[in-house]
Amino acid sequence: MMSRDLKPAHAAPHASQGYSELDLRSRDIFRRIVEGYLESGEPVGSRNISKVLPVSLSAATVRNVMQDLEDLGLIYAPHVSAGRLPTEIGLRLFVDSILEIGDVSQEDRSRIEAQIAAGGSGRSFEDALAEATSLLSGVSRGAGVVVTSKSNKKLRHIEFVRLDPTQALVVLVADDGSVENRILALPPGLPASALTEASNYLNHRLAGRTIGELRAEIERDRLTMQAEMDSLSARLVESGLASLSQSGGETRLIVRGQANLLEDLEAATDLERIRLLFEDLERGKDVIDLLSRAEEGDGVRIFIGSENKLFSLSGSSLVAAPFRDQNQKIVGVLGIIGPKRLNYARIVPMVDYTARVMGKLLERG
Fold first, then answer.
1. What are phi and psi of 159, to 5 degrees?
2. CA-to-CA distance for 22 and 264, rounded, in angstroms?
3. Could you tell me if 360 and 138 are in contact, meaning their C-beta atoms sit under 8 angstroms apart?
4. ∠ CA 221-224-227 to the nearest 5 degrees?
5. pLDDT digit string, tens, across residues 191-228
6. Could you tell me which of 99, 171, 149 has the C-alpha nearest to residue 295?
7. pTM, 2 dp
8. Which end of the chain has the least Cβ crowding within 10 Å, N or C?
9. Tens digit of each residue's pLDDT (9 = 90 or more) over 1-56
10. Going by DSSP bridges, is the β-strand pair 75-76/251-256 parallel, antiparallel, or unpaired?
């Protein structure tokens, strides 16, 4: 059994109190209602529950227990004389206290490792991220999402090119061959030779490092740099790396598998929910902000429906986990977005393991 390390978006009101008030019979009936909903999406009735319970209980007794669960805010009846569905508070209680999370099977482990390795082999890390996103989408039948910083790219070459007396163009060539240009303010009175000296000094130390890693190393060896370079060139290196680090904090969002969300729609309300979710996904900044909240500590985070503003209308869920680089710094978050009736028992360990595989890929460089 996988260790439980789930991080709720926030504590659901009354959930922990409700769980402490449940006896074993109530817990069993509540669990069967939630599991029935997660499997079929349909309300679960007292008659069906009474038939599958390990102890003999009449439908009337089951209905009395269901009423108690409803009074606690854990389930509700979508229609008069219908069965019951879990509320968002009930789902949170189930996920945090009852859900049994298994390990990822060896077959799934091999599949995840092979697919991500193929995505990153001879290509960029972003290609591996896109592959991981598609993989998560495929196993969940939801939308796979990844957010990461553009500043995580490992560099092959850096060049300072003067534009005018006050500005230079910084040309950054990544290991994957991609090129990025940025504008840098120059210190007053900087000679052309300082640009060349700064470029040579940095390229001698790049060796597949990111801007952040290069800056950290040069800050550690500041005395050595000052001994090897004139003061103006050293100032350019320090101010240039500081500026590049700050401007390199942009994030990239990758979403794959939105079409999966259109499958198995059975009612107009389902279609409207998916339309609202598509609108949510189009607001990239809001998705990035939500995913970034999963960086708060290790482990998998689960956001259910209106627990977060982004999904308050579509009633969707997000399962997400951060991944780290070789310095154990969190550099991104990956996850799955889908309906509230996600297969949490399968998806939670899959997301967790995929994040760990991405971290190992970064460690190998």
1. -140, 135
2. 34
3. no
4. 150
5. 888 888 888 888 888 777 777 777 777 777 776 666 66
6. 149
7. 0.71
8. N
9. 443 455 444 444 445 455 667 888 899 999 999 999 998 888 998 888 888 787 77
10. unpaired
